[in-house]
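Before we proceed, please read the two lines closing this message. Let me know whether the structure tokens fit the sequence:

…
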Amino acid sequence: QVQLVESGGDFVQAGGSLRLSCAASGSVFGITDMAWYRQPPGMQRELVAEITRDGMPTYQDSVKGRFTISRDNAKNTLYLQMNGLKPEDTAVYYCNAVVRQHYWEPGTMVWGRGAQVTVSS
């Protein structure tokens, strides 16, 4: 059983910074694409940023220039550095990854339980 555990969520004032981490535990043979999603209060979950195994990132337009996604393949860990936070960034942030537990198996999408980020104005 593979688990993704997010950490780093907090309460911060507008203009502040936070760094989210997401660590995979359990039987992991390999992880391909990883991503951060968020779900603002009363709204649908949306993609924030994603990154390939080779480190190629893509971002939602609203976070470009403020957020940086990165990963450490040796540690099976995903990061999201968030700078210049705005109240509209308030949401539960979820980690997502396509995980292979054994070499003979295809990847399975796994979700973390989420980390709350609250930005005050």
